[in-house]
Design brief:
Radius of gyration: 20 Å
CATH class of the largest domain: Alpha Beta
CATH architecture of the largest domain: Alpha-Beta Complex
Strand order of the largest sheet: 1-2-3-4-6-9
Shape: globular
Helix content: 40-55%
Number of helices: 11
Number of strands: 9
CATH topology of the largest domain: 2-enoyl-CoA Hydratase, Chain A, domain 1
Length: 285
């Protein structure tokens, strides 16, 4: 059962396995955790809430059951408008106006997925079972990626006649550092396994089972939540900025950022804790 503050998200289970850590489970196992229209809207709202929740310092994302997600729910998509951008089949709408509507729809979808990346708190995703399509988009937005040895990955969009449009094509080549490999898996939609994902750097660690991966994620998160929340927020923001910008611009932003951030009381508390040989006690952000 989700925590009361997060009970409005019908397709997600939110719990707290340890202080300052929130665990989010995609909760549609009977449909392989495939995403409906409601689910991706709720994903954006959920991660915006987690971002601003002062009781959260790290987030773990996984799926209920055996799979992270099989991607888009093709049954729902075939019944509705999701594959044509939410536009009605109205022949009176000219091509340009229809294109504008579809673009708005895609950008809204992109913003909901990107909420995982915009979250101020570190996000650890566990890829397990089927991790296809939208699961890869979401995983690319996370800060750390773990997987199980039996995970099957695939960027499936070309198999349904579209180019992946929710972030994988923009983020994956930067994550793995190989445009050739990224083009291979994106153009072919071929499945790849945990060994290959680790080899190219898409995941940082492979665990034997989902349970082992969950335990490892909690252990990593417990390290993160003991750090100063101002420092963690700034480090994540500056690393994300540096990925998209040159060194000089990144250094300038770091100077501006720390001109404010170094005024935090966390520095004094960290020094006092070091001198007193105790764990620091940082205030909520």
């Amino acid at each position: 059962m989700s925590l009361p503050a997060y009970s409005q998200y019908a397709d997600y289970l939110i719990s707290s396995p340890s202080p300052y850590i929130k665990q989010v489970l995609i909760n549609r196992p009977s449909r392989l955790n495939a995403f409906t229209d409601r689910m991706w809207h709720d994903l954006g709202s959920l991660f915006a809430q987690l971002s601003h929740d002062s009781s959260v310092r790290a987030v773990i994302l996984a799926g209920c059951g055996d799979n992270l997600s099989a991607g888009l729910d093709m049954h729902e998509a075939s019944q509705g408008d999701i594959l044509n951008g939410g536009t009605e089949k109205d022949e009176s709408i000219d091509g340009a106006r229809k294109a504008v509507r579809i673009m708005r729809y895609i950008e809204e979808f992109q913003a909901c997925v990107s909420a995982v990346e915009r979250c101020e708190k570190p996000v650890i995703v566990i890829l397990h079972g089927l991790s296809y399509g939208l699961a890869i988009d979401i995983a690319c937005c996370a800060d750390m990626r773990l997987c199980t040895s039996s995970t099957s990955f695939s960027i499936k969009e070309v198999d349904i006649g579209i180019a992946a449009d929710l972030g994988t094509l923009s983020r994956l080549p930067k994550i793995v550092g190989s445009l050739s490999w990224a083009k291979d898996v994106c153009l072919s939609a071929r499945p790849f396994n945990a060994t290959e994902a680790l080899r190219v750097g898409f995941v940082g660690e492979v665990l034997g089972t989902k349970e082992e991966a969950m335990s490892r994620a909690v252990a990593v998160a417990e390290v993160l939540v003991r750090k100063g929340p101002v420092a963690v927020r700034g480090t994540k923001a500056l690393l994300n900025h540096a990925r998209e910008h040159g060194v000089a611009e990144s250094l300038r932003l770091t100077a501006v950022w720390n001109a404010a951030a170094l005024q935090t009381g966390d520095v004094g508390e960290a020094v006092a804790a070091w001198k007193g040989k105790r764990a620091p006690r940082f205030e909520k952000l």
